[in-house]
C-alpha cells in the first residue's frame, strides 16, 4: 500500500511544540521592543505608577528610580521602570509573626 500526501507549496508543516516555541520567542521580542521604545514623561510615569508627580521627582532626585536626562528634559523608560518595580517589589512586604 502506497500513500501520497500532497501539500500545497505555500504551506509548511511544523510540530505544535516547535510552533509554540517560535511564537513565545516572537512575543518576547515584541514585548522587549515595545518596552525599550516606550519613553515616558514624569507625568506619564506618575500615572503609570499611580503616584503623584512630586513623588516621581523625589525618586529621581534621590536616584531611586531609573531615568535619563538630555539637557533639562527628564524621561523614564517604561521597561526600566518595570524592571525597577520587580526588583524593589519585595522590600516593603510586612513580616508575619509566628505565634
From TrEMBL:
InterPro entries referenced in this protein's UniProt entry, alphabetically: DNA-bd_dom_put_sf, HTH_17, SinI_DNA-bd, WH-like_DNA-bd_sf
Protein's organism: Ureibacillus acetophenoni
Full protein name: Excisionase family DNA binding protein
Tree of life domain: Bacteria
GO MF annotation terms: DNA binding
Keyword tags: Coiled coil
NCBIfam families per UniProt: excise
Segments forming domain Helix-turn-helix: 40-89
